[in-house]
Amino acid sequence: MNVRFMILLMVMSLVLGFSSAVDFRLRKTAGFSGRFTRAVSSVVFPVHGNVYPLGYYNVTINIGQPPRPYYLDLDTGSDLTWLQCDAPCVRCLEAPHPLYQPSSDLIPCNDPLCKALHLNSNQRCETPEQCDYEVEYADGGSSLGVLVRDVFSMNYTKGLRLTPRLALGCGYDQIPGASSHHPLDGVLGLGRGKVSILSQLHSQGYVKNVIGHCLSSLGGGILFFGDDLYDSSRVSWTPMSREYSKHYSPAMGGELLFGGRTTGLKNLLTVFDSGSSYTYFNAKAYQALKRELSGKPLKEARDDHTLPLCWQGRRPFMSIEEVKKYFKPLALSFKTGWRSKTLFEIPPEAYLIISVKGNVCLGILNGTEIGLQNLNLIGDISMQDQMIIYDNEKQSIGWMPADCDELASLKAAQCLTRKSKQSQLYHKYLRCRRIHLLTLSTLKEVPSFSLSLFLSFMAFSYSLTSPSPNSTLSYSNTHQFLNPSSSFPVSLSVSSPKNTRHLRLLITSALNPQTGQPTKKASTGSDKSSSTNKKRKKKGKTAKPVENWELRDSEDAFEEDDDADYSNSSRSLATFNSPPTIPKPPAGFVIDETGRVLMASKKRIATVIDPTNNSPLDCVIRRVFTSSKGEDCMLLCPVDTPVQILKSTNIDGWSAVSDEEVESLLPAAAYALAKIHMHLVHSGFCYTARGGFCYTEDNVFDFRTDDGQDVEGLPTEGVEITCFHLDGSHYMVYTPSDPLLFVAAKDQNGLLQIADDELLDDPAVISAIDEETEFNALVEEEAALLESLLGERI
């Protein structure tokens, strides 16, 4: 973003203040508009899965109103995105989530997207009001259904939310493929056709027509739409074929190299296909590869049927590193011009796996045997640990080595660590006021313009008066560096069509250079030692009147000191509005009447012990108060994410799991959480998960009965963290979106005990909860305002 624009926006803030199923006629008898605008950011999705043992990569897409999460397979080899659909469903497969409830927005047969879907077929409009489809895959799987439009919820990398209406398939009749053994909600079509999700987003002006993915060999990765996540100069590019317009295929056939030497096989028609777990060569290339691999000091493991060709050693192998020495790298060489070529390298770790039996298996298969004819597919195994980019605007395919696991971690780091909805907003509250925990001594090497970015947030509750609603603002910085013991001027100019008003802010350190302690506010009178209090004139020009104010910073975290005059050590600023009443902050934070943090305690964690199993539960102290009977009490919130396991009832929804059944599900739940880098904790009083995960308000869904009432024993709202299958049943690990609060009181021995029902009715307890609610309401309002400002800035 332009730095000048950011500064202007920040300083302006200083001046202006801071389902039910729908009955369809779906059975077969056996366009978009929108002006294109410049895409300002990319859309990034975390990817889950691996090549082995899971055999797939997928992403979570939120679809519908209200939005619901669905797990979709990444497939750059096909265009259509479809979900298993309750229309009702004739034949549906095991799925992680309840069936998609389709919208009533049917796409008619004469729609341009329907025509594009059937471009190479003689499709007749037997039912003009709907667009029927049937898609078949190379492994024999298929989906039959109709096209509908619905809302897709996603976020730009810069935080702005978008909710486009996109076409997708409502699949009411699915046949599984021979190689498809994993549960799925549907397929995310990422091909080059007009009906693909990327093409639709591009046609509506949301993103550039570029897609990419980075699949980690350790599992997971990212999928992205847009072109601002990579440096094009570091990418190896090859032109995209115009003949095979529906697939991501290099324009020139590839030459197969083994160990850096040619195999004599050239002009290999190649397609990059993320929907295939393994790589497929045509019969000639496959046989040539087998010949090159023969003669290894490894014995063929004929009893291992993980893949068609496996080898065993004297003892089971633990990793590819142990066997790399027996195998040579592969490469496909593609022409990029008359004399230039580019290599797509496939090292041993990108075509081998270690089976559960400890054997090494070849992850390149014979594509001719499954009907691929002369086609060669580059599958997930050979695209691991590389960023693969499909640039439809420049008609190019690119790749470069990448740490996909790190990229996935960076994507997760963009999201706040999840504890609860309210605690997440509270962390936003702290960030907005982080300036109060900074001092000039910590910023002594920061240029003046950088400090101005903090100033706008420090004075968020004040507003300067301006001569006219049509005033414009200009800012000048002096480009001098800060010194802990010096004053620092910031100049502002507020201009209207009739006049200009010059303002000068004088920032002075609140620290005494000799003692390092907070200084008291000076007695009434002007500061004659400050040269910035004098009016200045430029040579040959008469200066406008300059109005001066003094702005003091606060110390990092004030110690408790009864003698310190905190009320008088606050900043002074020209003309300001009276700030609203600030709700009482959480325990450990002391603020003044303007909302400025005076003290922040580091001792904000308490541990309570569950007497039934002696397990601890670490909690954040939210409130400290005294009950009506004089008991010392605390309002606590778990540090980690509280979780509960629900069982799918298929179409009807979800049901709670009994305590007895939960115990048998914990190992599977722990494994499911580990796959998304979360750790199941056997805490006291409840189960918790340690780690962070990303979600938006669109991911929050209600738990209600058919009559609209809250489900007994379940919070009203929750967020799905992950899901898993066990013994033919589907389970969800979820967390309530509202915080799980505990009231604890100290017993006679000074130990914290969870309060009984009688204490929960105490007026002091009710008052503490009300204070927490009021505070969180303020935080939520400010977070919404900040999000709105960021959205307008983007």
UniProtKB/TrEMBL annotation:
The keyword Hydrolase applies. Residues 533-542 have a biased composition (Basic residues). PROSITE patterns: ASP_PROTEASE (PS00141), PEPTIDASE_A1 (PS51767). Gene3D superfamilies: Acid Proteases. Keywords: Aspartyl protease, Hydrolase, Protease, Repeat, Signal. The keyword RNA-binding does not apply. One of its GO terms (biological process) is proteolysis. GO terms for molecular function: aspartic-type endopeptidase activity. Residues 508-587 are annotated as: Disordered. Residues 57-400 form the Peptidase A1 domain. Residues 556-565 have a biased composition (Acidic residues). Residues 509-525, 566-579 have a biased composition (Polar residues). Residues 1-21 form the signal peptide. Belongs to the peptidase A1 family. This is Aspartic proteinase Asp1. The lineage of its organism: Eukaryota, Viridiplantae, Streptophyta, Embryophyta, Tracheophyta.
